[in-house]
Write a structure and sequence with these properties.
mainly alpha
Length: 147
């Protein structure tokens, strides 16, 4: 029972710290993003933007598809929202995976300090976090909104 309680406390500590750390997962963009530049920012990926993008893809795109012929659809600004919504969905999923891997790493680190996880466990959790972080940061560095 004590083991479960200690794990639950460690997880709560990790989860409580995660929102504050979420803002700087990739660090500042290099080069800095100028006002009006269509590059994506880490702060763009929130539960709200994910929900809006998902709603657009589920509700608005089918309506557009019904209205427009294929030739017209590919040559209109109507598809900008589609592409930008995919960016929000993909970015949010990659961000959440990186944050989850960071929380897992932090939990395993706390378990290791308590003697309930090995150094190999910490190394493996750190590697999973770094891989997820690199994928998100690479996406962040290369994704651009369609304007």
């Amino acid at each position: 029972m004590k083991r479960w309680h200690a794990s639950a406390v460690a997880l709560l500590v990790v989860l409580a710290a995660s929102p504050a750390l979420a803002q700087t997962l990739c660090g500042p963009p290099n080069p800095p993003i100028a006002d009006g530049e269509p590059r994506v920012r880490e702060k763009d990926f929130s539960a709200t933007s994910f929900a809006q993008a998902s709603q657009y893809l589920r509700q608005d795109v089918p309506k557009l598809m019904e209205r427009l012929r294929t030739e017209d659809l590919l040559n209109t600004e109507a598809m900008y929202g589609y592409t930008n919504s995919l960016i929000h969905v993909d970015g949010y999923v990659l961000l959440q995976k990186a944050l989850l891997r960071r929380a897992e790493r932090d939990l395993v680190t706390e378990k290791s300090r308590a003697g309930r996880a090995t150094r190999a466990d910490v190394t493996a959790a750190t590697a999973r976090f770094e891989e997820a972080k690199q994928r998100f940061c690479k996406f962040l560095a290369t994704a651009h909104y369609v304007d």
